[in-house]
Design goal:
It comes from Nephila pilipes. This protein is of the alpha/beta class and 220 residues long. The protein is 56% helix and 12% strand. The chain has helices at residues 5-17, 28-35, 77-96, 99-115, 117-128, 132-156, 158-164, 184-192, 207-218, and strands spanning 40-41, 44-45, 48-49, 57-61, 68-73, 169-173, 196-200.
Length: 220
């Protein structure tokens, strides 16, 4: 499509004079959730939140307004070693569960995400740069469905899964621009098979991962 110079000038002027309008949904629920953690995150290990660290800190800001959201403290070498040790210890307990018992936990996590879907989508949106509509209609539903799918698979194919179990600690690195989508099917499939996960998240886009950790904790 070709535009005349006059049309191009009109389009340019139109964009220059456009007024910003408030978003239909506020980020207040996400900010309120961050406050429940005192706007500080260090990590989540052995079903517990780690205390504020003295290591390097990353200040997470709204990428558009630069409003402050939270401080994320980078883990020290000692914290990482403890996380690896905790994962190995947790593997023993998780692997000892039957596939149907693990299935129950995965269904509970899916239900918890579904219950808090709006908050999950908003927390993902404020740092990832993706639209809230895309996250609400694609990413969060995919995350929920992945947990339900592998929970069902673990239940109906318990014998096959038990005979094939390796029992390993899987290290997964989250992609900074696809925080929940990049790990959704990996987490649920790894857990369903009787393995455990050490999830490494990007400090600038870690809120959704920490909310997922919180929902896993409240799911039992």
């Amino acid at each position: 499509m070709n535009f005349t110079s006059e049309a191009i000038d009109k389009i340019s002027e139109y964009f220059k004079t456009m007024n910003e309008t408030p978003a239909e949904e506020s980020d207040k629920p996400a900010k309120d959730w961050l406050k429940t953690h005192a706007n500080n995150f260090t990590g989540f290990v052995n079903n517990n939140w780690l205390p504020k660290s003295e290591t390097n800190v990353v200040k997470v800001l709204n990428p558009f307004t630069t409003d402050y959201y939270a401080d994320v403290f980078l883990p020290s070498e000692e914290i990482l070693e403890n996380a690896v040790k905790s994962s190995s210890e947790g593997l023993i307990k998780w692997k000892d569960l039957s596939a149907s018992e693990r299935s129950d936990y995965l269904f509970k996590i899916a239900a918890s995400i579904e219950k808090h879907a709006d908050l999950f989508a908003l927390v993902e949106c404020i740092t990832s740069g993706k639209t809230l509509h895309r996250i609400k209609t694609k990413d969060v539903p995919n995350l929920i469905q992945s947990f339900k799918y592998y929970a069902s698979l673990a239940c109906v194919q318990e014998q096959k899964i038990r005979s094939a179990e390796a029992g390993i600690v899987c290290v997964i690195a989250e992609e900074y621009n696809e925080p929940s989508l990049s790990v959704s099917w990996r987490i649920s499939s790894v857990l369903a098979a009787g393995n455990v996960i050490l999830l490494l998240v990007n400090a600038a886009t870690c809120f959704a991962a920490f909310l997922l950790a919180e929902l896993c904790q409240t799911s039992g």
